[in-house]
UniProtKB/TrEMBL annotation:
Region (Disordered) residue spans: 230-268
Pfam hit, one: ABC2_membrane_2
Keyword Chloroplast tagged: no
Identification of the protein by name: Uncharacterized protein
Keyword terms, alphabetized: Membrane, Transmembrane, Transmembrane helix
Keyword Transmembrane helix attached: yes
Ranges of Polar residues composition bias in the record: 230-242
Regions that span the bilayer: 295-315, 336-361, 381-403, 410-431, 476-497
Length: 503
C-alpha cells in the first residue's frame, strides 16, 4: 500500500511541483529578513564564558586585586533617567538598572565576572558570568552596604543595612585568574514597554536610559594596586580615563561619552552609566534578530504541502477512485495509514532539507547585509531543523485527515490553513501579545515553537513576544499540541472511513 500511494504521489506532476515549490519557498524566504541593514561590525557582541553572546557595557571604577581579598562600599543614592521621546527624558530607574561591586577578569567585554548589586526594581542581586542570577533581600533601595569577597575560587556576595550585620546573598565560582580587576560599577539597559494602540492592538515603546549611583565608605582588604582607574567597558564608543590626584576624571582622547562618567572627591564616588551586563536577547529591547527569523518562510512553504496532503484523498473522492482503492484493499485503515506514511515522510524530508538550507543561508545573507543575528548553539540549530521537518509532516497528515473527514478539497484547505497558518500570522502581526500567546498555545500553530532559538531570561527586561522569536510553549510542547490535533483528526477519519459509503 505504501508503494502504491507513493506511486500515486510521484506520478501527479502538479503535486510534485507543489512539493518542490514548498521547499523553494522555505529557502527563498529565508533571505527576506536580510533585505536591509542596520548594523555593522562595531555592533558585534562579545561571547561570554559559557559560549552565549552577551552584552557587557558599564561604567567601571576599579583597581587590581591579587589573591584573596574583598571590597566593601555603601550605596547612598541610586537614581536614573530614561528616554521619553525625541529630545526628552524623564526621571526614573528602569527595573534592571544596576549599581554595585564587581570582580572581573580584566576589562575585556565578555570576560568572566561576579557582582553584587542594587537594581532599579528587583532588590539586591548576585550575578555572575552573565547567565546566573541569585535574588537577595528586597526593601529600601538605599542606603545599602555591599560586600564582595574572594576566598580561593569562591566569590561571596553580602549585604547589610548598617555595615555591621551582614547577610549572604550568594556564592559563585567563576573561572577567574589570581589577578583581577575589582571595583564599583553602574549600568542601565534600554527600557521597553507595551503600549496599547487603536482597536486594542499592542505595540512597543522605549529607548535608552542612564543610572547614577553614589558610593562612599569604600574599603579594601587584600593586596591591591594603588590608585583608581575609570572607564566605560564595552559599548560602541567606549573610552578610558585615569583618575587625577583628587579623583576627578581626566579623559584620554576619544569620542565624548556624556551618558557615562564618574568622579571622586573626599572618598565619595559618583558614577553614571548605561548599557547592561547580561546575556544577549533578541526583540524590541534586545540586540539583533534570532535565528528563527531565517525560517520565516515555513508558513509559506507549508501551504503547498497542506494542499497536496488534503488532495491526496479528496482528489480520489472527487473522481470516484477511492472506491477502486478500497476494493483492492478492504481494510480501509491500512489505506489511510499508507497515505499518512507517504505524505508525512515526504513532508518531513522536505522540511528538514529546507530548514537545513535556510538557516545558514538566511544567517549569512542577514549578516552580509549588516543585520546582527544572535548566534545559536549547534544543538539548537539541529533541533530547529528536525523540528521543522516534524512540523511539516504533522501538518500534512493533519490535512490528509481533515480531507478524509470533510471529503472536499476546498473545505479541507480552508480548515487546515485557518488553524495553522492564520493563527501564526495573526499572532505575529495583529493580535495583542497576551491574546497571541493564547492562540499559539491552543491551536495547531503552536508547533511553530519548534523553531524557537532565543532564550528567555527572567532577569533581562524585553518584550518576549512571538514576533521576536519567543513562543508561549517550549518546542516539544508546541509539537505536542499539533500532534494532539492530528491524532484527533486522524481518529475521526479512521472512524468515518470505516463506517460510511464512498461516494
Amino acid at each position: 500500500m505504501i508503494r502504491a500511494e507513493w506511486t500515486k504521489l510521484r506520478t501527479v506532476r502538479g503535486w510534485v511541483a507543489a512539493l518542490a515549490g514548498g521547499l523553494l519557498l522555505i529557502v527563498a524566504f529565508s533571505v527576506a529578513p536580510g533585505a536591509g541593514g542596520t548594523c555593522d561590525e562595531t555592533c558585534r557582541l562579545p561571547t561570554g564564558p559559557e559560549g552565549q553572546e552577551v552584552t557587557d557595557a558599564f561604567r567601571f571604577v576599579h583597581r587590581t586585586l591579587t589573591g584573596d581579598g574583598s571590597i566593601t562600599a555603601r550605596v547612598t543614592s541610586f537614581t536614573g533617567e530614561r528616554d521619553a521621546g525625541p529630545g526628552r527624558s524623564e526621571p526614573g530607574l528602569v527595573p534592571w538598572a544596576k549599581a554595585g561591586l564587581i570582580v572581573k577578569d580584566g576589562v575585556r567585554p565578555g570576560s568572566s565576572y561576579a557582582a553584587v548589586m542594587l537594581t532599579g526594581a528587583h532588590g539586591v542581586r548576585m550575578q555572575h558570568d552573565y547567565v546566573h542570577d541569585v535574588a537577595g533581600p528586597t526593601g529600601p533601595r538605599t542606603p545599602r552596604w555591599l560586600r564582595l569577597s574572594r576566598d580561593g575560587d569562591t566569590i561571596t556576595a553580602a549585604v547589610s543595612d548598617d555595615g555591621n550585620r551582614w547577610r549572604t546573598v550568594g556564592t559563585a565560582t567563576p573561572d577567574l585568574p589570581s589577578t583581577v580587576e575589582v571595583g564599583l560599577f553602574v549600568t542601565s539597559p534600554q527600557h521597553a514597554e507595551v503600549s496599547t494602540k487603536v482597536f486594542g492592538l499592542s505595540g512597543a515603546s522605549g529607548g535608552p536610559s542612564t543610572a547614577t549611583a553614589t558610593f562612599d565608605h569604600v574599603g579594601f582588604e587584600g593586596t591591591t594596586a594603588a590608585g583608581w582607574r575609570t572607564q566605560q567597558i564595552g559599548g560602541p564608543s567606549a573610552t578610558s580615563a585615569v583618575a587625577g590626584t583628587d579623583g576627578a576624571e581626566e579623559p584620554r582622547p576619544g569620542p565624548p561619552q556624556p551618558a557615562s562618567r564618574s568622579s571622586a572627591r573626599d572618598g565619595v564616588f559618583t558614577l553614571t552609566g548605561n548599557g547592561d551586563v547580561a546575556p544577549a536577547v533578541s526583540g524590541a529591547n534586545g540586540l539583533g534578530f534570532s535565528v528563527t527569523r531565517t525560517l520565516a518562510g515555513t508558513f509559506v512553504g507549508l501551504v503547498p504541502l497542506v494542499v497536496v496532503g488534503a488532495m491526496l484523498v479528496t482528489a480520489e473522492y472527487r473522481r470516484g477512485l477511492l472506491a477502486v482503492t478500497l476494493a483492492a484493499t478492504p481494510r480501509r485503515g491500512r489505506v489511510l495509514a499508507a497515505k499518512a506514511v507517504v505524505i508525512g515522510g515526504v513532508a518531513a524530508v522536505l522540511g528538514v532539507a529546507g530548514a537545513a538550507l535556510a538557516v545558514p543561508l538566511g544567517t549569512a545573507v542577514m549578516r552580509g547585509n549588516g543585520l546582527y543575528v544572535n548566534a545559536a548553539p549547534t544543538s539548537t540549530v539541529v533541533r530547529m531543523v528536525l523540528g521543522t521537518g516534524l512540523l511539516l509532516a504533522l501538518c500534512a497528515v493533519f490535512a490528509l485527515a481533515v480531507g478524509t473527514v470533510v471529503r472536499r478539497g476546498a473545505v479541507a484547505l480552508t480548515a487546515v490553513l485557518g488553524l495553522t497558518v492564520l493563527p501564526y500570522l495573526l499572532a505575529m502581526s495583529v493580535l495583542p501579545a497576551r491574546v497571541g500567546d493564547w492562540v499559539l498555545a491552543v491551536t495547531p500553530a503552536a508547533a511553530f515553537a519548534a523553531q524557537q532559538s532565543a532564550v528567555e531570561y527572567s532577569f533581562v527586561d524585553n518584550l518576549y513576544v512571538p514576533s521576536a522569536g519567543y513562543f508561549p510553549l517550549p518546542p516539544i510542547g508546541g509539537l505536542a499540541v499539533l500532534l494532539a490535533w492530528t491524532v484527533v483528526a486522524f481518529t475521526a477519519a479512521l472512524v468515518l472511513l470505516g463506517r460510511r459509503d464512498v461516494r
